TrEMBL record:
This is Phenylalanine--tRNA ligase alpha subunit. Belongs to the class-II aminoacyl-tRNA synthetase family. Phe-tRNA synthetase alpha subunit type 1 subfamily. PROSITE patterns: AA_TRNA_LIGASE_II. Tetramer of two alpha and two beta subunits. Its EC number is 6.1.1.20. GO terms for molecular function: ATP binding; magnesium ion binding; phenylalanine-tRNA ligase activity; tRNA binding. Pfam families: Phe_tRNA-synt_N, tRNA-synt_2d. It catalyses: tRNA(Phe) + L-phenylalanine + ATP = L-phenylalanyl-tRNA(Phe) + AMP + diphosphate + H(+). The gene is pheS. SUPFAM superfamilies: Class II aaRS and biotin synthetases, tRNA-binding arm. It comes from Candidatus Caccoplasma merdipullorum. Residues 107-334 form the Aminoacyl-transfer RNA synthetases class-II family profile domain. Keywords: Aminoacyl-tRNA synthetase, ATP-binding, Coiled coil, Cytoplasm, Ligase, Magnesium, Metal-binding, Nucleotide-binding, Protein biosynthesis. Mg(2+) binds at residue 250. InterPro entries: aa-tRNA-synth_II, aa-tRNA-synth_II/BPL/LPL, Phe-tRNA-synth_IIc_asu, Phe-tRNA_ligase_II_N, Phe_tRNA_ligase_alpha1_bac, Phenylalanyl-tRNA_Synthase, tRNA-bd_arm.
Amino acid sequence: MLDIIKRLKEEIGALTASDLNELESLRIKYLSKKGEITSLFNEFRNVPAEQKREVGKLLNELKDEALQKINSLKERISDNKQTDTEIDLTRSAYPVKLGTRHPISIVKNEICDIFGKLGFSIAEGPEIEDDWHVFSSLNFPEDHPARDMQDTFFIQRSPDVLLRTHTSSVQTRVMGKTQPPIRIICPGRVYRNEAISARAHCFFHQVEALYVDKNVTFADLKQALLFFAKEMFGANTKIRLRPSYFPFTEPSAEMDISCNLCGGKGCSFCKGTGWVEILGCGMVDPNVLEACGIDSKVYTGYALGMGIERVTNLKYQVKDLRMFSENDKRFLEEFEAAL
Ligand code: DAH
């Protein structure tokens, strides 16, 4: 018996196991009901009385060692496992919170995606523009108030170089270079010389859409508007068009959507009317087509333009325009879920 105990002691001291299965078979081999160490305990009664004290002590020691060995192997295996698979070693030591997309970008992407479904592709133009693309080509009369220093930021005191006041300038940039069919959506930043308040800012964002082809009619415009309103604000959204005036469209209209807060019943958001204004639109004025070298007897088109801040406000009720440019993380994080 003493020899067997000695042998087992050596064996156990040298045990290794690379995974939990291997370890379990070792446990079974030595410590289960029929395990080698357990069998020794069963044979203990046959040990002569004078040896019982010594053998019993060694036997208990052997069992303790075996248990300890198995536990330490188990710990080592689970440590290894963690290093291999559960900890991302490329992670930085301190938790880094990812930023979120800006609400203006979220809404801009949404608008572009919706028009993308109708076959519109994105076009962009410069923010520093000339008078021709922002005003003259778009049929603004010489003395139109928008050309005034009070509304427009001019650059280097040149009356010809200015910060664009609307993304309609991208219309005439594209029409000047391309013959129809043209179907573009133009997102971008625009600038106006306004005092900054909750309701006005010196820069904001617009999306312009333009469709020019043979036989484009007001009915096409209306259908595109309805599609956009339902996709953006929900299938129950209604639209209404009011006659309006823009130099570059004839006829022109402004579109309201049924208030998406009260569903059209009337609330403080829609000032009790059930409707909220969202964008301007119309049929491209033949003068604009001609100014860009497009034959207005062959082609017609529609255009529309909207403020992204306005759409964001309608969708998320952002009351103060200044929030969009303050970089307040608490505000920006509110849009995590909208991504
Ligand atoms: N450019 C106009 C603005 O800044 C918006 C607009 C109105 C664009 C009517 C259009 C349109 O294309 O047809 O207020």
